[in-house]
Design a protein that fits this description.
Elements lengths: L1 E6 L9 H9 L5 E8 L9 H19 L4 E5 L2 H11 L3 E7 L4 H16 L3 E5 L21 H10 L21 H16 L10 H14 L4 H4 L12 H6 L4 H9 L5 H22 L21 H9 L5 H13 L4 H14 L4 H11 L5 H11 L15 H8 L4 H6 L8 H4 L7 H7 L14 H13 L2
Parallel strand pairs: 1-2, 1-4, 2-3, 4-5
Bound molecules: flavin-adenine dinucleotide.
């Protein structure tokens, strides 16, 4: 009979839970169809995240080919695709995949579960993407956690599944002919042809492993003291490989466990827990992409000023650390965590612009876009999420810059127009008197924007905005 291995956000052979089960459970005589389904309703136009993901798929396709494993593409509505496939191959009786536990993928999987059942196709679905699945860690009463710290305590106590290195694959994977696959490949090639990322995007399992090794050698033990400084660039940059599944989360976990204890190691582990935490929160709040988790903030009168939003997007707010963060995002498809917090706070507090607009902009631009972590991060910054920053703790963009980029060297990297500004003005160019501006030949408003809002004065307005909700 025929068996489908449906690859999604698990673009690797190493420690791939569904795929290793398939190899173990299927018979020599079974024909395995490895599939990648392209669903146009998931495509986001002009999106770094979308384009980068497909480059990872392409690399995976090539890697599989080298090992004589053909990856077949399907294009269209998943249910229609699978219906057509079943009509041709009525001996298809099992499907293996790593499940999506939240968001779009979860809804799709639920819909398809009915389809597979109706057609007597056995489902073999596994939790693969996280150290703990969405329902694994609950309070003793069975309720889900809402606050990170008690969740983290439980999470630490639970043992993690082993990492299983992929052994040599000895079986034969036939290339299966079908017009649907021809169409799928054609569409995939079209997608790839149109990709023009303005930055280098390295991908694949080997690259991911190199990033992990490099981080463990150079960054892990100093992670605690350096992770908040964008210039130090000491974080792991593993997020994009975890997002595409090019790296097994269990591989990361066990590699870190093998290291000696240090504060850096401990803090890094807690970050991996945040990833699981937000995944669990999204599962329990399936509407959270559109709706505030905290009920009392669902009626907030967010602002929708397109011009202000555009200035934020382009990194022209007049607050150097905010602008440097946004330009890092626009130029590289990635932004340092500290800056994500600063720019998200600026949009939602200083401008009082709807956090959903920021969340969607990040979705377009981030090569590590992960719905649960992104929505979690945005609702945290907007104070509307569970265990979020309280609304009265408002990031001051100037002091954040002074603290986390003290010499302004990171700002200068992304804002070359500020290159020659003396250090005393780098975080607050508007402090310069007319005389200073003249002496430097640098005029605020011409060479760099004036601050779009006065952070000092806006505080009472923000407090009233939340209090009156
Ligand atoms: P490291 O500091 O090396 O952390 C290691 C890993 O831990 C990361 O790769 C990530 O998987 C996980 N992690 C770290 N911090 C967090 C966190 N706060 N929440 C959840 N997981 C975390 N992360 C994403 O992966 N995708 C997103 O779309 C995303 N959007 C965000 C939006 C906002 C507004 C904020 C404040 C944070 C967002 N984060 C997101 C979390 C965090 O910024 C990134 O995971 C981190 O910057 C990725 O870089 P790194 O791999 O070098 O992280």
């Amino acid at each position: 009979s025929k068996i489908v291995m449906w690859f999604r956000k698990d673009l690797r052979l190493d420690d791939n839970t569904a795929f290793s089960h398939l190899l173990k459970q299927s018979k020599e005589t079974d024909e395995v169809m490895c599939i990648f389904q392209l669903n146009p309703s998931q495509f986001i136009k002009k999106s770094y995240n979308h384009d980068a993901f497909f480059l990872s798929v392409q690399t995976f396709y090539k890697e599989l080919r080298k090992r004589q494993i053909p990856l077949h593409f399907l294009y269209g509505d998943p249910e229609e695709n699978f219906t057509a496939l079943k009509e041709t191959f009525d001996d298809w009786d099992a499907v293996y995949f790593n499940k999506d536990e939240r968001g779009f993928g979860r809804v799709r999987d639920q819909k398809l579960a009915d389809f597979f059942e109706q057609h007597q196709i056995q489902i073999h679905a596994y939790q693969d993407s996280h150290l703990h699945g969405v329902e694994e860690i609950t309070k003793p009463t069975g309720e889900s956690y809402k606050v990170f710290t008690p969740y983290y305590k439980q999470w630490q106590l639970r043992s993690k599944r082993p990492y299983k290195k992929q052994q040599v694959i000895e079986r034969i994977f036939p290339e299966i002919g079908h017009p649907l696959f021809d169409e799928g490949k054609k569409q995939f090639n079209e997608i790839i042809k149109q990709i023009k990322l303005p930055f280098d995007y390295e991908c694949g399992e080997t690259v991911a492993e190199d990033y992990l090794k490099k981080f463990i050698t150079n960054g892990l033990h100093e992670y605690q003291s350096k992770r908040d400084y964008p210039l130090a660039d000491q974080t792991s940059k593993l997020s994009r490989f975890l997002r595409t599944g090019e790296l097994s989360i269990r591989k990361v976990w066990h590699a870190i466990q093998a290291e000696p204890e240090s504060t850096g190691r401990q803090t890094f582990i807690s970050e991996l827990c945040w990833r699981d935490f937000y995944n669990m929160i999204y599962f329990n709040h399936p509407k959270q992409k559109d709706q505030e988790i905290k009920e009392q903030y669902r009626e907030l009168q967010w602002h929708y000023d397109e011009q202000l939003f555009e200035k934020w997007r382009e990194g022209k707010t007049g607050y150097p650390i905010v602008d440097a963060g946004m330009r890092q995002l626009n130029q590289t498809g990635w932004m340092h965590n500290r800056l994500r917090m600063i720019v998200a706070s600026f949009l939602t507090k200083d401008l009082m612009i709807d956090w959903r607009m920021g969340e969607r902009y990040f979705q377009e631009k981030l090569i590590d876009y992960d719905s649960a972590s992104n929505i979690g991060g945005w609702q945290w910054a907007a104070s509307t999420g569970t265990d979020a920053v309280p609304y009265f703790r408002i990031f001051n963009p100037t002091t954040q810059g002074e603290k986390f980029d003290p010499t302004g060297a990171f700002i200068r990297m992304y804002l070359p127009e500020l290159n020659d500004l003396p250090n005393e003005y780098i975080h607050c160019p508007s402090k310069m008197s007319k005389k200073v501006q003249e002496s430097l030949g640098f005029y605020l408003g011409d060479h760099y924007p004036k601050p779009m809002v006065d952070h000092q004065k806006i505080r009472p307005e923000i407090l009233a905005f939340f209090k009156n909700s």
